[in-house]
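Table S7 (text form). Paired inputs.
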Amino acid sequence: MTLPALMPLAIMASAAVDDDDVTPGPEGFLLTALVVALVVLLMLDMVRRIRRTTYRAQIRERLAAEEQDRQSGVDDADDGTDTTDPADADATPTDEPPTPTR
């Protein structure tokens, strides 16, 4: 059969079916909800993987900078700044607990 011969059948079929009767139904709704849920899960997984890759790149940069500093002889702990608390300068460390005052 050729296309012109099938045209009357298509016209009769479209006239016989009411547009309100043709709906996706519960199966269509469930399938659409499933696709939406899968897309959301894929997006969450993608964001997690991108974040993990970014963190790994930042850590690699830090490690490379530390290695370069170590090879050049610069130590971060010996940068000339005093990190001791002046209030602790008078205190002497002892093994004895403090005596209570009355």
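Next pair, protein 2 of 2.
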Amino acid sequence: MTRVEHKGPLRERQGVNKSPRPFHHLSSFHLPSSVDQWPNFPPKAEWRSREEGLGFERMIKGSLQRPHTPKMHVVAVLVTPAASVLELAIPAEVFGRFADRSAQGQEKSRPRYVVRMCAMQPGLIPVSHGVSIRVPHGLDELSSADTVFIVSGNHDYPPEPPPALVKALEQAHSRGARVVAVRSGVCILAATGLLDGRRVASNADLADNLRQHHPAVHVMPSILYTADENIVTCAGGTAVLDLCLDIVRRDHGVTVTHGAARQLLAPPHRSGDQAQAVDLPLPERTGGMSELLDWIRARLDQPLALSDLAEAANVSPRTLARRFHSALGMTPIQWITNQRIRLAQHLLETTEDPISEIARTAGLGGPGNLRQQLVRTTGLSPRDYRRRFGRSGHGIDLASEVERRRSPARPPYGVAEPGS
């Protein structure tokens, strides 16, 4: 085969100044790690031959299709003296499962968490119930963490945090880290001023002291947890498990969360606005509330009015609304809407069904309402949500990105297309 010397842009990019070389000599050619670093591909007219040009293109696409391993999400758990063993163990267990790549058998390209225990001074830290934990990291670990958990004592109001800790928390927040305060850890975070004007969840035993020390904080002693941008507060106890699963859901979608919840034998989602204490016990499964909830889930694609639910439960609408709010902390319509959104999220993550079909199956009517509800709860349109959390998500299909760059008529990423 006759070789034609190439004098176009491709030759200049490769830095070839001598005689032309066949493409198999490019085996050590450095491939950029980001799509944005790729130059425009040469037009076909500049290929030395059709066979070698196609071979070069296959080489590039093959490299781009290699699995992309995202950066590990670092969860730093700040251990303080007398901290609750339970509240320390839950984030370590939930996020540690992802570090072990054991959550629902997810593929290795999925983003993962890594947990790092830290303290003011590394070493043996006495926590609750006579237990001591050897903590390997100091406060410097907070400077690189993506999520910071502050876990403090059970019921006593903690002393003023040292200036070094306040500074480390302020710096973590200012660079965009998610800061999570649990139980009396809320009091420590309040000392930084980051909770002023915010609605925060608090354990009932600490609420009065928290209001007295920090009157600018809106203390909510009746709810499980709150999330205000990248500031998260939690009342503590088993609500920490609900909070951790909610964080996984926000980061990786409902399907991954359900897999982790199944391994933990935990419900996949309990709303942060749910009451800390329920006045009436949940009814038994046979003939009670759980049976009604299953009945509703099986009919999410159908119109459901309060009267329909009351008839199915064989109670009055008023009684049903009271029981619903007592048990779940919300109205029946709010709960149904949440279930429909979660079903739509699951379908977007696991199927290639059209968005209009998913909206119908989830009982949300049309694409417009689905988009409105999803943007309200996740900040993403259905198309962006599928791109981020779907089976082909967690990274752009780079081979498709190559084709997109060669077709300038297509809209760039970040520009919404009709129906998205």
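The two ends are 49 Å apart (CA to CA).
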